[in-house]
Amino acid sequence: MPHYDLCLTWNWEYDTDFVRLLESTCQAHGLSLLQITPDNLAASLNQLNSGETTFGALLDRASEVDERFLPVEAWAFTQDAYRINPREASLWSEDKATMHLEFIAHGLHTPHTIILPPFAEKPNIPPPNLSPLGNPFVIKPARGGGGEGVVLEASSLEQLLAARQQYPDEKYLLQAHVTPRLLGGRPAWFRVLYGAGQVYPCWWNPDSHVYTPVKPAEETEFGLGALREITQRIAEISKLSIFSTEIAYTPEGLFLVVDYVNDQIDLRLKSKAADGVPDAIVENIAGGIAWLAESHHK
After folding, report:
1. Mean per-residue pLDDT for 268-289?
2. Of 115, 231, 246, 295, which is least surrounded by CB within 10 A?
């Protein structure tokens, strides 16, 4: 009966380079890797359910967009396999409205925000007082990623009503625009990646999505150690082992978490795509995944 140390479910063609790195990392650690893709999903499920195949740890990068992969997650749960970013933690942490309140409760700073109920639940609500948000303001659904449903330059109640009807079952967040301070001539806007206990702060341009790792000297010079502290606290709150977050450093000296938790992070390599993640960081994250599987070896 084949037993694998780690199972990876994946279905995104641009994960190929990441998967290659994970394969080589697992091989270097003496770990066996089972890959389940759309091509072998049915056969793999039959083998798991019949007991022909088992695994000790799971990283799911497929079921969020393809529910056919959910039985693999269910098998891992019932067999008590170690799940990297368990589904229940992912679903809980992807709700921006929930995370907003959790972050505030844990002392993390966020943009000024108004949370509205789903349109399907309460279609007619009193017009919110938008003045504390400034003009323009941001409208975003509580769930979803990649900017879906987000209105970055909202200025009217009409836009708010239209947005709420776009995803009527979702709560909505209205947020103030955040203007970062300048550090060394560049905006202090960061995307920070977290992988298996390690924090990787990067300068990040929200328009071009280009990553540039924060150098140790910059971290010291500009007092950016809070990026690591905040990200570690987010890991504790979310119970996730791999995710990214966006943090802006304002002229008032506040580190604001502006995009809370993204657990299905884009791991395209910077050497292959201008807006990809620096290769060394992806390699380290792959190493962290192998370490998690090895640490929870069964």
Report:
1. 96
2. 295
Q: What is the pLDDT of residue 205?
A: 87
- Both tokens of 130, joined, read 């938008």
CB-based burial, 186-225: b 16+ in 10 Å, e otherwise: ebbbbbbbbbbebbbbbbbebeeeebebbeeebeeeeebe
Label the pairing between strands 137-141 and 57-61.
unpaired
Peptide bond into 136 cis (omega under 30): yes
35 within a domain of the structure (yes/no): yes
Asked if residue 246 is part of any domain, the answer here is yes
Q: Indicate whether 19 belongs to any domain.
A: yes
103 located within any domain: no
Residue labelled with tokens 């502006």: 258
pLDDT digits 0-9 by tens, 158-179: 888 888 888 899 999 999 989 9
Q: What's the pLDDT score for residue 130? A: 84
The arithmetic mean of pLDDT across residues 67-76, rounded, is 97
State the total domains in the chain: 3
CATH assignment of the domain containing 51: 3.40.50
Report the CATH number at residue 119: 3.30.1490.20
- pLDDT on residue 82: 97
